[in-house]
Amino acid sequence: MAQAPAFWNNPPDAPGWQARLLSPLGWITAAATARRVAKPAQVRPAMPVICVGNLTAGGAGKTPTVMALVDRIAARGLRPVVLSRGYGGSLQGPVRVDERTHKSDEVGDEPLLLSAVAPVWVARDRAEGARAIEAAGEVDVLVLDDGFQNPAIAKDLSIVVVDAGVGFGNGRCLPAGPLREPVQAGLKRADLVIAIGPAEAQADFMVRRDLPVPCIGAELTPLPTGMEWEGTRVLAFAGIGRPEKFFDTLRVLGADVVQAVPLSDHQALPPQLVARLKADARRLGAQLVTTEKDAIRLNAEDRRDVLALPVRLSFADPAPLDAALDRVLSA
């Protein structure tokens, strides 16, 4: 998707004239989502189903959250599998992602990235995807990626991820604001909220929001890469929900971000664009750097010239999450 309009991040008590003008369309979005989520589930898998989703459009940290869940499930001796819609990919599915042969334009960048840590299936029809996974066997837990507003599969645990820095924006539904559905309506179906961001942002979000479900804080932490970032001149580009978060992470590591290029979420990286980025980096004497998700969309040749900065989720207090997992996985 394109970068979000600035008024989406206005405070709820001052949403802006654009939000007020578009509010009738937001009411239609809210009503449509309410009708959709009220539909009965088409399939109830024999294995536990853990759903990771959000209430807003765009990135909030779902992919790192899915990675963290996969790690915690595997640590319990269980075999997780991820089911994704495959946003940005051409394959309808159900198909199991093969990181050796599939490309991001076939299965989507996030499924391809996740396939390095767990089996991943993509399916436009989530119910058909769940049936295919059960038929294939050899897994114990289904992690549903970005399926919170999709009622096709019965869920045992629903986790809502939120960007602590922007919260739920101006509190309006699309296109008047960033919400896929009203906050209170969505949280009635949630079991846990994970607020992702720096510690101050987590604390501020939790103070400002009176949430009806438990909320825990988490932060995206860069993994060691062997790269000495301090003082390194970089040209950074990112096609994620909030590219500035990636640029800020590089600055915190000490990198000299001489140019930052924000792209639309999931934006394609054609040869012409990459060639321009390479030329700008040479002119500035800078190293090209991007996110793991963006690097997945580069071809093999271009990937050799671009450094990817991997990040993983670290929890301030994972006890509520572990308790929820124990309850579901030991049932």
TrEMBL record:
- Highest taxon, organism lineage: Bacteria
Q: Which Pfam families match?
A: LpxK (PF02606)
Arranged from A to Z, the UniProt key words for this protein are: ATP-binding, Kinase, Lipid A biosynthesis, Lipid biosynthesis, Lipid metabolism, Nucleotide-binding, Transferase
User: Which pathway does the record list?
Assistant: Glycolipid biosynthesis; lipid IV(A) biosynthesis; lipid IV(A) from (3R)-3-hydroxytetradecanoyl-[acyl-carrier-protein] and UDP-N-acetyl-alpha-D-glucosamine: step 6/6
Write out the GO cellular component annotations.
Answer: plasma membrane
UniProt catalytic activity: a lipid A disaccharide + ATP = a lipid IVA + ADP + H(+)
Its Enzyme Commission number(s) read: 2.7.1.130
Q: Which residues are involved in binding ATP?
A: 56-63
Q: Which GO terms describe its molecular function?
A: ATP binding; lipid-A 4'-kinase activity
Enzyme group, top EC level? Answer: transferase
Name its GO BP terms in alphabetical order.
Answer: lipid A biosynthetic process; lipopolysaccharide core region biosynthetic process
Q: What does this protein do?
A: Transfers the gamma-phosphate of ATP to the 4'-position of a tetraacyldisaccharide 1-phosphate intermediate (termed DS-1-P) to form tetraacyldisaccharide 1,4'-bis-phosphate (lipid IVA).
Record family assignment: Belongs to the LpxK family.
* The protein's name in its UniProt record: Tetraacyldisaccharide 4'-kinase
* Species of the source: Pseudaestuariivita atlantica
